[in-house]
Amino acid sequence: MTNISVREAVDVTEPSLIEGFPGVGLVGKIAADHLVEEFDMTHHANVHCDSLPKVAVYRDGDAELQPPVRIYADADRDLLVLQSDVPVGPEAASELTTCLTGWYDDRSVRPVYLSGIPEGKDESPPALYGVGVGAGVEAVVDAGIDAPSEAGLVSGPTGVLLSDAVESGRTAVGLVVESDPQFPDPEAARVVIKNGIEPLAGVDVPIDHLVERAEQIRDAKERLAKRMQNAGDESTQARPIGMYQ
Fold it and tell me: How far apart are CA 106 and CA 61, in angstroms?
């Protein structure tokens, strides 16, 4: 059984939703966590799913236990964030998709899905690409985000959500950023936020805190990153595909 239970009502109108499942470079996870913290977003709802790991999450300085997948909201910015503290396998992703997409439709949610593509590190900033379904294609163009430079696919829970959007024709945007394949990548998350989320969601996101704490963030999330390297289909990631494979 899958359901979304409202914890605290927040009035949003046609909000953008930023998805933050763990994946390559933990890009979505880092970006989602930063948005929730920087905007002091309201813990709006909890996502329950039989296929999700049966764990309870606690926070530094907070005695209240929480489920591992939650939705946060900011009424002033008309913004939602889907935050996940656990890897999500294919079975759970399929259940979540059924639940989430119905919830999206009821609230006119415009989802923005995030994925890293493994890339060796160099001195240049990570490249960011945008893809879309329906009106999401125009949104990517209007935001000035480059189209992919090569053919590829998105897997893991984000791939399941994007696949459902393609099948149903539901509007969606996907952001793919070059990311460190082995370690948490706050720099890739910074690029996603400034060059992708800001123009798509119409928000201004302070990133000084993210840049200053890059090393601390990398260290704090390295254990999860190592788990994700061995997670297979549980890891959100984009990867190139050969034209003649």
Answer: 35
